[in-house]
Structures are given as structure tokens and as C-alpha cells.
Amino acid sequence: MLLADEVNRASPRTQSALLEAMEERQVSADGTTYPLPEPFFVVATQNPHEQLGTFALPESQLDRFLMRVTLGYPDSAHERELLRGGERRELLSHVAPALSAAAVLRVQRAVRGVHVAEALLDYAQALIARTRERSDLKLGLSPRAGQGLLRAAQAWAYLAARPAALPEDLQAVLPAVVAHRLERRDPAGGGDGDEVAREVIRAVPVPT
Fold first, then answer.
1. pTM for the whole thing?
2. How many domains are there within the chain?
3. 138-186: per-residue pLDDT in tens?
4. Which of 50, 54, 79, 88 suits a disulfide with 8, CB 3.0-4.6 Å?
5. Pairwise CA distance, residues 185 & 131, whole Å
6. Beta strands at 2-4 and 32-35: parallel, antiparallel or unpaired
7. Which CATH number belongs to the domain containing residue 23 in this structure?
């Protein structure tokens, strides 16, 4: 796992190197290419775009992140715990692995085995098409976004111990999967990517 902290403070050249790692599962240095191990995935944080010293990630790189999760501020109880806790970095040395690399690969294979019916594919395509039809959005969802949406729905169903993905699985993961990919042409139009995702869910009928 690669943790890219404050990724939008990295220069465009550094972001380009990260793009190669995410897309091609390899890195290049001094003309030599090094394959990355499996499993490999990237978790990144970013600062608000309005802060000085940030570089907006291009759409091509944003599209390679499966999900965007907004944390916000901690609630009062958890903030009090953080204030009392002292140096949090010291806790890292006591953190035990939850899964081995081999176990992660087994879970990934199991997720890919969750059944996706043709009717669910129709529903996913209808959700994607709806974003491409909207003139108020800069771009609709890409085929890569559609693949990520289905894989995330399979994972959601797997966590619920169900052998097949359902429409509600797509609805549950859609905001996190598409929020960073959808941007209004007019920022004054109101609502962020999460709100656009909810609008799309309301606009597309659920298959029966």
C-alpha cells in the first residue's frame, strides 16, 4: 500500500510518476522499469483546492482512484481523545497487520466471483449514461469509472455475505465512486459530486 499524503501538494511531474504506478503497476527510474508487487494500491489524502501551494490533479489521474471519501472534522468525543493521546505516531509501531498479502489477494478473487446479473449491468449502464447526458457536467463517467462502480458493488455485496450484487449495492457505493469524477460546468450550480450522484440515483429507475 502506498500512502500519498497531501498528494495535491506534489508537483505535476511527481503526480505523473504516481499515474504510471497506478495505471501500469510499474515505476521507471534512470531508464529502468521496475514492476510493482501484488497486491498494490494507493491511498491518498489531499488538501482543499483553495489552499496555496496545491496542484489540482488532472481528470486522467482522478479517474484512476476508485473512491473518494470525505472525512471532515472529528466529532467532539474523538477530538478530545486525539488531544489527550499525545504523539499519535508512536502508536504505529504497535499496529498489527489485519490481513496478509496472500489473504488480500484471496479476498480480491472472492469479490470478483460475486455474481452480476444482466439486469444489474443494464442499471449500471443507465446510471453511467445519465451522467453523459447532463449538459451541466463537464464530463460524464468513463468506462473505467463504470468498471470501478461494478467492482465496488461486488465488494459491498461480499461484505454483506451475499453471492450476488443488487441495485442497492450500486446505489450505496455510487457517491463515493463517482464524486471525484463529476464536476459541474458552473460551480455556482450548487452541490458537489456527492449531490450529483444522488441526483443520478433519483433520476434512473431501478430495474424490477
1. 0.84
2. 2
3. 889 999 999 999 999 999 999 999 999 999 999 999 999 998 888 888 8
4. 54
5. 13
6. unpaired
7. 3.40.50.300
